């Protein structure tokens, strides 16, 4: 598995695909598939069979994963997309830093 620079809770913008230009918060990161689920984006309709928890069944709307390469982190200071660098802080711990504003994410 690869180490990803996008984490749960980050605000990201879609930079390619059907939802290009839209922003949302990362709900979950699927490291083994290099994908992330973004809140309110890439909504699909899933057909659900009736079960004990859902006796009616029917069609459920839910978010589908988006590939990490189609997402970019939004810099909280400038509100623009930015790349991320990994640097050491004063305690020697690795932190994520915005390339545009040099602010710790």
Automatic annotation (TrEMBL):
Q: Give the record's keywords alphabetically.
A: Ribonucleoprotein, Ribosomal protein, RNA-binding, rRNA-binding
Q: What is this protein called?
A: Large ribosomal subunit protein uL24
The UniProt family comment states: Belongs to the universal ribosomal protein uL24 family.
Which residue ranges does the record assign to the KOW domain? 5-32
Claim: Ribosomal protein is one of the keywords in the record: yes
Q: Which HAMAP family match?
A: Ribosomal_uL24_B (MF_01326_B)
Matches recorded under PROSITE patterns: RIBOSOMAL_L24 (PS01108)
Superkingdom, taxonomy of origin = Bacteria
Q: Which Pfam families match?
A: KOW, ribosomal_L24
Q: GO cellular-component terms in the record? A: ribonucleoprotein complex; ribosome
Q: Which residues form a coiled coil?
A: none
GO annotation, biological process: translation
Q: Does the keyword Cell cycle apply?
A: no
Q: Provide the function of this protein.
A: One of two assembly initiator proteins, it binds directly to the 5'-end of the 23S rRNA, where it nucleates assembly of the 50S subunit. One of the proteins that surrounds the polypeptide exit tunnel on the outside of the subunit.
GO MF annotation: an example: rRNA binding
Quaternary structure, per UniProt, is: Part of the 50S ribosomal subunit.
């Amino acid at each position: 598995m690869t180490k990803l620079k996008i984490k749960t809770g980050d605000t990201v913008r879609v930079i390619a695909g059907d939802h290009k230009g839209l922003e949302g918060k990362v709900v979950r990161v699927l490291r083994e598939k290099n994908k992330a689920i973004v809140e309110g984006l890439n909504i699909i309709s899933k057909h659900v069979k009736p079960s004990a928890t859902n006796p009616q069944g029917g069609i459920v709307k839910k978010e589908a994963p988006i590939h990490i390469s189609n997402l970019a982190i939004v810099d909280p200071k400038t509100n623009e997309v930015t790349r991320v660098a990994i640097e050491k802080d004063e305690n020697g711990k690795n932190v994520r830093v915005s390339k545009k504003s040099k602010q710790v994410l």
